[in-house]
Specification:
The protein is an alpha/beta fold. It has helices at 13-25, 56-59, 86-107, 142-161, 180-190, 209-221, 240-251, 262-272, 275-282, 290-296, 304-318, and strands spanning 4-8, 28-33, 44-47, 68-71, 112-116, 164-169, 172-174, 203-204, 206-208, 229-231, 238-239. Helices cover 43% and strands 13% of the residues.
Length: 319
């Protein structure tokens, strides 16, 4: 059955992939964006530029009723934080803003609200076994704290209002159009830069953007998803060195990976004041994604090899 879906952040990296997946299903899609003509073809744009979705209830167009909302818009990691109180800024967007959208959506007839959170709501690392949805969350930074608070506030709101809440916690998402650290890694490999990654054996869960989009479509349509929290991955975890070698192969570039001992990398991180970045590079972060398989019968439609191939092909065609 087709449905009417509203997506916040529809013009972003993930939002565009989700829009495509819904349109291919035959759904009608409204994208809430700040700038016109930034969504994929076929999405009806709703321009809304107020900070933290303030006043969205009053400005919700009468004609824009929806069955479900996928909430992607968020304040994400800032490389150079300029706010005096970062946690307050993250809370304003990620908690208060999400609740405003949920309340407005319910009044517009939505039955389901899919909140795209992050594994950072639980933590930055896994200690010897993959993280499950039942594990006690211990977020370590303002972004992760705000995402966890948003999850809990939305679950409470859903309980009070009857709006069906679904929480999805992805790990690192990659694919055509990826930015930040993943793009920097591809750029370094493509340019033949020697990287000290040859000895890193710790594995990290990844998620191809089209796999995430497919999972989110299931979370908006499947009755069994209501009230659930899901960890979603590609289903195969790579070490950082395996990831770099795979990317080198797909980029048709030499894999210049130097086997620097992990202890030395850790020491270099402490001496340079970049311990957090180095720990993310050398530490394990694996997610257990069996719950969504068992509950919804969902399996990632694309392999990690396919995802890396698509990402590398995009990089080669645009750089």
């Amino acid at each position: 059955m087709t449905q009417r879906v509203l997506i916040t952040g529809a013009n972003g990296f993930v939002g565009q992939a989700v829009s495509q997946a819904l349109l291919q299903r035959g759904d009608s899609v409204v994208g809430v964006v700040r700038r016109p003509q930034t969504t994929v073809e076929g999405v009806r744009e709703w321009l809304f530029d107020a900070n933290d979705f303030e006043g969205i209830d009053q400005r919700w167009p009468v004609a824009t009723r929806c069955d479900a909302v996928i909430h992607l818009a968020a304040r994400v990691h800032m490389k150079h934080e300029t706010t005096a109180d970062p946690l307050a800024a993250y809370r304003a967007t990620n908690v208060t803003g999400a609740l405003r959208v949920a309340a407005a959506a319910r009044r517009a007839g939505a039955r389901r609200f899919v909140f795209v959170s992050s594994i950072k709501a639980v933590g930055e690392s896994s200690a010897g076994r993959p993280i499950t949805e039942a594990d006690e969350p211990t977020p370590t930074d303002p972004y992760g704290i705000s995402k966890l608070e948003a999850e809990r506030a939305l679950i409470d709101y859903g309980r009070e209002s009857g709006l069906e809440i679904v929480i999805v916690r992805p790990p690192l998402v990659y694919g055509p159009g990826v930015r930040a650290n993943f793009l920097q890694l591809m750029s370094a490999i493509a340019n033949g830069v020697p990287l000290p990654l040859g000895a890193i054996a710790a594995r990290r869960s990844l998620l191809f953007v089209d796999n995430l989009a497919d999972a989110l479509v299931h979370c908006t349509t499947d009755p069994r998803a209501a009230g659930e929290t899901f960890h979603v991955t590609d289903g195969r975890d790579l070490s950082v060195s395996e990831l770099a070698r795979s990317l080198a192969t797909q980029l048709h570039a030499p894999a210049r990976l130097i086997p620097v001992p992990v202890g030395l990398l850790s020491l270099a991180g402490r001496l340079s004041g970049r311990s957090a970045q180095v720990d993310r590079l050398i530490g394990e972060l694996r997610l257990d994604s069996s719950h969504i398989r068992e509950r919804l019968g969902w399996y990632p439609p694309y392999t990690v090899e396919h995802g890396l191939l698509e990402t590398a092909a995009w990089y080669r065609s645009t750089h």
